[in-house]
Amino acid sequence: MPTLVWSDALSLSMPVMDHTHEEFVDLLALVEQADDSTLLARWQTLIEHTEDHFGREDDWMRATGFAPGNCHTTQHTVVLEVMRDSARRGSQGELDWVRRIAAELADWFPNHAQTMDAGLALHLKSVGYDPVTGELEAPSALPAQAITGCGSSSCHDKTAANDTQAPQRTEAANEPLPEGESLV
């Protein structure tokens, strides 16, 4: 059984975002259930989905007043870097590393969705941004200064360097993590 299963608790009441998140959860489950012969292909499918998924969210943030280096976008960059590094390691035979990163993603994703993505969803709604069409209903509601934080209530508008929600790891390591340390 997969570590993470889609549920209403992960819903952000924004259909386009919820659909993408449900796809992520489903693809991650396929990775977790893969045997060694299908693992890397399923991992690559998850990476491709995640590139598109994060890219769309990053586009929405740029369109609605987030600074280019905001901590939400930075976390997307770090997670993709770790996933791509894991694909390289997996192609060199380190399949257990790919499985470990998949398990880390299953632990990481609910918090990311319920903090950073929930903050983004609320922000998009508050400025009247339609993520499907890219239309902005209330341009006057855009922030006067670029948002450098993640947009969640736990983050407010801290700088990425001081943000408690920013990833703790800025590059993929070549060695296994110490017991109890998380990738993000």
From TrEMBL:
<dbReference type="GO" id="GO:0046872">
    <property type="term" value="F:metal ion binding"/>
</dbReference>
<dbReference type="InterPro" id="IPR035938">
    <property type="entry name" value="Hemerythrin-like_sf"/>
</dbReference>
<feature type="region of interest" description="Disordered">
    <location>
        <begin position="150"/>
        <end position="184"/>
    </location>
</feature>
<dbReference type="Pfam" id="PF01814">
    <property type="entry name" value="Hemerythrin"/>
</dbReference>
<feature type="domain" description="Hemerythrin-like">
    <location>
        <begin position="16"/>
        <end position="120"/>
    </location>
</feature>
<keyword id="KW-0408">Iron</keyword>
<dbReference type="InterPro" id="IPR012827">
    <property type="entry name" value="Hemerythrin_metal-bd"/>
</dbReference>
<dbReference type="InterPro" id="IPR012312">
    <property type="entry name" value="Hemerythrin-like"/>
</dbReference>
<protein>
    <submittedName>
        <fullName>Hemerythrin</fullName>
    </submittedName>
</protein>
<comment type="similarity">
    <text>Belongs to the hemerythrin family.</text>
</comment>
<dbReference type="InterPro" id="IPR050669">
    <property type="entry name" value="Hemerythrin"/>
</dbReference>
<keyword id="KW-0479">Metal-binding</keyword>
